[in-house]
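ENTRY TYPE: paired fold submission
RECORD: A
CONTENT: sequence, then structure tokens
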Amino acid sequence: MRKVGEDKRLTLLASFVHTVAIGIRDDVATMFCKRMAAIHKKGRDQLEALREAHRAESERLLGVFGDVLSAVRDALVLEESSTPEGGQISPQQPKGTAHGAGPEVAERAGHLVLKTLERAGGVEALTGAHEAISAHHSNNYLPLLEQYYQRAAGRAAWPRPSRERRPVAARPAADLRPFPLPRALLRR
């Protein structure tokens, strides 16, 4: 560097500083992409853990639904067997439907359904379990990421943005340096 002229030395130094700044920006962008990928992986893992935790509850709710269907079927079968024609169903009344059933069949079915729901833990508990399971039914893990973003933002020690409102071209050259240069290089 001593053998070259001062103008060429400053040009080479500015080129070096520019190359280092580009490398630093690339490293920061790579670091940001890796951090975001890690956060999204945590969200997908948490969604899978929720699915595993709710799998048994889903099977229990399906069992309760099967019990409800059995209770309604039992109420309809009791109606069919108590027809006045000795168990014969008239052609106007379709078999297995409650459309032609009277209010006593609906009342009996309602009592059987409510009894089944109470045995399974009550309507409120079943509703809460259903909502918890169906909240993450799709593959959407994005609502789970908020907690990880908040943690990452709390750890990040980003410098505060400059309050300078002037355009970059109007700022003094000393404000544009990424780090202070030795005074010997600044003298001309």
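RECORD: B
CONTENT: sequence, then structure tokens
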Amino acid sequence: MKPTGSAPRLAQGLVRSVVPVLLALLVSGLIMLAIGAHPLDFFAGVWKYGITGSNWQRSLSLMSPLLIVAIGLIVAFRGQLWNLGYNGQYLLGAVVASGLGPMLFAVMPTALATIIVFIVAILTGAVWSLIPALLKARYGTNEIITSLVMSFIAVGVVNLLIKGVFKDPGTSTPQTTVIADTDLLPYIPGTEIHIGFVLAIVLAVVAQYVLSRTSFGLRVDIFGASPKAARHMGLNSTWMVILLFALSSGLIAFAGSIDILGQFSYQRADWDPRYGDAVMPLVFLARFRPVAAIPFVAFYAVLATGGTLASQQAGLNVDFLLVIVGLILLFMTVTEYIGERHRLGQSYLPPGLRRSLPIPVRNESERMPV
């Protein structure tokens, strides 16, 4: 008999979320030992360069784009839409800020120019998602393939813009004009953390409320659980696909613009931090809940901030951080398989949806041929 109380469900969720991280850290330490590195030096370096002194402020600043990318992915994934074009969408938002920003800052007040940059970045990401969204909605085309293709195209377009119309004429390096410090996002008073961090936290709270406490969130969960059941309930699946893709891609592009105006101030050709690759396992660990993603994103932000110098200190390549992320994804899959024997993906559905949709989903499954 399964536990029905909220406390057992919470305990199960914590176990399935925390255990993969702990196992990944343990195995990564064993790998370091096997290749002659020093795991204690590495983890001590992560703590030192990611948290101690003022380094925690750098980690929180990095959280801003990471958390917004995570929210964008959650919006799509809750509707069972696999938006994997996040790298291109992020870079499109970044190039809007780095290329369009200096032009606007030169002719209008900083606050107004910043708002316009954010709006244009969000719209650019949303429009870029139309092709995979329409192909998915009208023809059932696999959105994983189409979103990846659009991402590759976006990367090429961004590089062309940086080497062309957005190139800084004052340097031979293919990069955009450096934005003046006075035009960047302001810091939280008394810190070196830009207000993008506050925007990211607010977005996570708002997204959590919308997805869990509103009729729109219920429609998203119903659509994600069963598009056929959603159509029976009168939901327009075409518009739902387009809307979720637009929201997801727009948020990820917004993260790119936040990153440029928050800390980088310019953009070079062929630059791609690939935040989405690192964030994707974290949104699964958070079980598609925006607020629950905050501690996992904070963990990775500390790991990424301190891990660069810590890797050098331990005699590792900085790409070892991706090994840790891959191990988290691996152990997350194993833990989920062991802990959940229901149909694939059902364990990630919010508890409220499982209670509200048992009959339609069960009836459809019973009518399916075995």
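NOTES ON RECORD B: The chain is about 75% helix and 0% strand. The mean pLDDT is 88.
STATUS: closed
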